[in-house]
Amino acid sequence: QVELVESGGGLVQAGGSLRLSCAASGRTFSSKTVGWFRQAPGKERAFVASINWSGLSTYYEDSVKDRFTISRDNAKDTVYLHMNNLKPEDTAIYYCAATYITWRTTNPGDFTSWGRGTQVTVSS
């Protein structure tokens, strides 16, 4: 089992940037697909972005495609989410999650390991 810990959240003004980190413990992390999800108050957890084990394949939800970048450093067992041009609607708790599934999936149920989340708040 992989343990995941998110960090890097905070309060930022609209148009600003943040970089979230997802640090993992566990020998199998580098072989897993990692995704970022977010959950706003009163809403279901939603897919944001994912990256395959090698980092060569990434996938984004449409509303973040031109603003967010997911990357990973397997030597550091860490996945990053670079968020630019943040909008108030990006406000949510952001979670990272890992799965052995190798095809693209946006279903939270396909991810077996989850962090506790980090709060991102974007003020207008």
Detail the topology: elements first, then pairings:
Blueprint: E1 3-7, E2 10-13, E3 18-25, E4 33-39, E5 46-51, E6 58-60, E7 68-73, E8 78-83, E9 92-99, E10 113-114, E11 118-123
Parallel strand pairs: 2-11
Antiparallel strand pairs: 1-3, 3-8, 4-5, 4-9, 5-6, 7-8, 9-10, 9-11
Low-confidence stretches: none
Q: What's the assembly state of these chains?
A: single chain
Shape: globular
Radius of gyration: 13 Å
Query: Mind describing the biggest β-sheet?
Result: 7 strands, mixed
Helix and strand composition category: mainly beta
Estimate percent helicity.
under 10%
- Helix segment tally: 0
Q: What series of H and E elements makes up the topology?
A: EEEEEEEEEEE
Find the count of extended strands (DSSP E, 2+ residues): 11
Question: Alpha-carbon distance between the termini?
Answer: 39 Å
Give the rounded overall mean pLDDT.
Answer: 95
Strand content: over 45%
